[in-house]
Design brief:
The protein has an eight-stranded parallel sheet. The chain is built from eleven helices and eight strands. The longest helix is centred in the middle third of the chain and has 17 residues. By secondary structure, it is an alpha/beta fold. It has a single domain, classed as Alpha-Beta Barrel (TIM Barrel), CATH 3.20.20.20. The chain is 47% helix and 14% strand. Belongs to the vitamin-B12 dependent methionine synthase family. One of its GO terms (molecular function) is dihydropteroate synthase activity. This is Dihydropteroate synthase. InterPro entries: Dihydropteroate_synth-like_sf, Met_Synthase/Corrinoid, Pterin-binding_dom. It is an enzyme of class 2 (transferase).
């Protein structure tokens, strides 16, 4: 599982201030930290950046690449001018791995301008399944949006292999059925867009539940999505357990979750407390257990 580090983000007080004040040191420290923690990509998230994004994004890109020249970047802002300005100055990394535009919505006013940028600068892009009416209601609406955007990209000369489909993760505590819908959509991707890659904003699954419950929700759902074919996630580089699972160091957790998705209910009494917690979390995400903030205590 490839990991796209999410912590170089304007919503962080420290990083947001560094962006505003053009203070390179905290930004570079965070980039080096993400590399040390095993991230495969670094996401630079400016948010809307409506006022000065066209100046800020290329500056941040250059600052990050000064200290981490060998990791590909994901350019994350809704400001198209900022994306274009960054693409003009970004340096390709020694391995040749393309940088990523994060992301292009399935809205003509967005993709008609942004897809040509991806083609011109040989960038990969994340295809975000957010359509004219917002969040898709189910996996079939996700599939229809996926076909629309990938067809347009293919016509522009971009092959599926350079496209990372993001079906959109939503909070499990308020939209539990959507967690299952995304898994079903994930299984459909090889048929509707052969060769396309996939990713997601993983931490959205735990957006809302108490802070201490967020890691196990993120970790469990990542494995569930991996079972359905997910190839990467945008993740928290500070979650060492999640990184260990993603890098194949906790096969026991993966085997438990895969088994449950295949219909095998484990003997809870025979599991350690740690493994019981993962089993309970699978049942919450699948809707077998009604969500509450105390599901691990039941």
């Amino acid at each position: 599982m490839l990991l796209i580090g999410e912590s170089l983000n304007v919503i962080s007080t420290k990083i947001g201030r560094a962006f505003k004040e053009r203070d390179a040191k905290p930004i570079q420290e965070e980039a080096l930290f993400q590399k040390e923690k095993g991230m495969d990509y670094i996401d630079i998230n400016l948010g809307p950046a409506k006022k000065d994004g066209h100046e800020l994004m290329p500056w941040v890109v250059q600052v990050v690449q000064e200290v981490v020249p060998d990791l590909p970047l994901a350019l994350d802002t809704s400001n198209i001018d900022a994306i274009e300005a960054a693409l003009k100055v970004i340096k390709q990394i020694p391995s040749g791995t393309p940088h990523i535009i994060n992301s292009i919505m399935v809205r003509p006013e967005r993709y008609e301008r942004m897809v040509p940028l991806a083609a011109e600068y040989n960038a990969d892009f994340i295809a975000l399944m957010w359509g004219p009416e917002g969040l898709p209601r189910d996996e079939n609406e996700r599939a229809a949006l996926c076909v629309e955007l990938l067809y347009f990209a293919n016509e522009a000369g971009i092959p599926n292999e350079k496209i990372w489909v993001d079906g959109i993760v939503t909070p499990v505590n308020i939209q539990q059925p959507q967690a299952i819908s995304l898994m079903e959509f994930q299984k459909m991707i090889p048929d509707i867009s052969p060769g396309a890659r996939s990713t997601c904003g993983l931490s959205n699954i735990s957006n809302g539940p108490p802070e201490h419950l967020r890691p196990i929700l993120n970790q469990t759902y990542m494995v569930m999505l991996q079972k359905c074919g997910m190839q990467s996630v945008i993740s928290d580089p500070r979650d060492d357990q999640l990184t260990a699972i993603a890098k194949g160091q906790r096969q026991d957790i993966v085997d438990l979750i895969y088994g449950m998705l295949d219909g095998t209910q484990p003997d809870m009494a025979g599991l350690s407390k740690e493994m019981q917690d993962y089993a309970k979390t699978v049942n919450v995400i699948l809707g077998n257990t009604l969500y509450s903030d105390s599901w691990l205590e039941v």
